[in-house]
Sequence to fold (364 residues):
Amino acid sequence: MSFTELPLEKAFMLLEPGPVILVTTRDAKRDNIMTISWHMVLDFTPSFALRTGPWNHSYEALRKHKECVIAIPTIDLAETVVSIGDCSGVEVDKFNRFDLTPLPASVIHAPLIAECLACIECRVTDYVKKHGIFILDGIRAWIDPARKERRTFHANGDGTFVTDGRKINLRRFMKDKVPPGV
Amino acid sequence: MSFTELPLEKAFMLLEPGPVILVTTRDAKRDNIMTISWHMVLDFTPSFALRTGPWNHSYEALRKHKECVIAIPTIDLAETVVSIGDCSGVEVDKFNRFDLTPLPASVIHAPLIAECLACIECRVTDYVKKHGIFILDGIRAWIDPARKERRTFHANGDGTFVTDGRKINLRRFMKDKVPPGV
Fold:
């Protein structure tokens, strides 16, 4: 568990496939983690959208402190990730309960998660209240190049998940849709 | 290629895993199809967010006619799906060029795609101009129960894609996070 910097123009690639992600926040009391599948890429700079609301304890910290870390878990962490989503930061110190290691981020106060494949430090630049959508700017990204397990997983919504399978290269069908630097 | 109705409360499950999707629109001239990975679930009713803008030919039809069909392709269609994303509906009749079969939807004018695993008829209920986000309400959903290939695929953003792998059941770790009806 040792992060090296990932060029920011590649950071959107972590969310583009739609995996289950973790989002860390820090407020005065303690660090918190939420599990979420409701996210999408908005552009390659990178910026992201995240759908959550007041029913989620992290919502307050996102609105107040306007920053978070997106962390990408892999399938060896699947049970932990789902369990993180099944309890609330109101009652639980999630780093402690799930034996995860908070690492200091470089720019923001919310922590990286050492056990994850990659992390993106993000600033909340807007909140679309009408639809409960947070707008995030990714400002620095980290990846663990030595990690053996690199397969992420995707929620089906019914308590089952699908793990990454075979990789296929279709770049020859994309004349001009691959952004610079990736 | 024969669709039967999918209960609407299960329709969010088609987008929850974050696959590459197709979106059909109809305007006065002809039907069009776009390929997109920038989508997320907003709630279980279901409603969805879709990020696109004026650079995409489908944008005008979405804004004007306020409806579309989300179609879920599987890995046997991967080359077609990527090629659809690599040309513009301004010049190309995509159903014709890619030998896809438009089927009439039940409520809206944009067509279903017979070759896909599933389709969701959607109304555009809002457009968040500042961030280029379309808000969609799913109003009727269809699935092909007989289709053999059911694995979807996910974009990595660099012209490679990851196919669905193994399914894991973690429902035992989710006490109350599975919505009714799924």
In short: Chain A touches chain B through 57 residues (CB under 8 Å). Chain A has a mean pLDDT of 95. Residues 25 and 62 of chain A are 7 Å apart (CA to CA). The radius of gyration of chain A is 16 Å.
